[in-house]
Prior knowledge:
alpha/beta; two-stranded antiparallel sheet; 14% strand
Amino acid sequence: MQHMFRLLGMHFSRWLFLLTPLRVLFRLELTPTEEPEAWIKKVTAGKDVIYVVPRMSVLDLLAINKALKQLGMPRIWHEAKPNRFRKVGLLSIRPRKISFLPRSRVDLFSPALSKLLTEEHRVKRGELVLLPVQVFWSRVPDRNDRNILLRSLLPDEGTENVFQKYFMLLLHGGLLRVHFAQPLELSPVASGEEQLAGRRLRRSLLIEFQRERTAACGPVVYDLATVSQRILASQEIKKLVNQSDNAAKQMKKAAHYLREIASKYNYSTIRAMETVLDFVWTRIFQG
């Protein structure tokens, strides 16, 4: 888990310190928008907080720390190790994404959370909560980017790299949205059930992150390769394939059928058609 919080061999807190001047470029929209300072103090109820982000990103943490400063809350400087952080800690569901490396599917979050449930004294005393928080770069409230090229280049699924984030920062005049979700209580669990509890909490957090992103940006549109991979890896397909005498041949046949019936589309085409249809319907109904 330790390497998740390091970039080029340096701990994320040092990167936050070095990049602090960039915060002057950020203009934050905080949600919930109605009295966010009172809201966050009410939902945390004086308990220590572990902020959970969907993916490790120093730029996201810069924006979150600026939001916490505006709210009068302690900022994030340490990862959430059992009995090793005060007031505020950090956990990330997925490691940072490096474009030229394959995406890691290793779950580092659930074991870290299970260790907290087992060893952290504040869990036993009911003094610790998980608070999901994410930063929206590509979609800003009250702003609709109509440029087809720009909208096709800027992803909405939360996988923006550092260059895309800098570009979106300039494009939107520094305006970002930082969303705090409802906290999850960390309660003691029976001995031997820590791993199961960790996986359940991870699943709940992923659902919360996806729901908020869908509400802000609309449903994520996956390409054909991703859809095909997920379908072929599903338990139902594996079960049918394993029932045959030749599993490898049956899997190839399933992949062939999938290519025949699946729609092939890409994100740029969908964004372009969205803009065209938006223009057409506007002309029809507004003249």
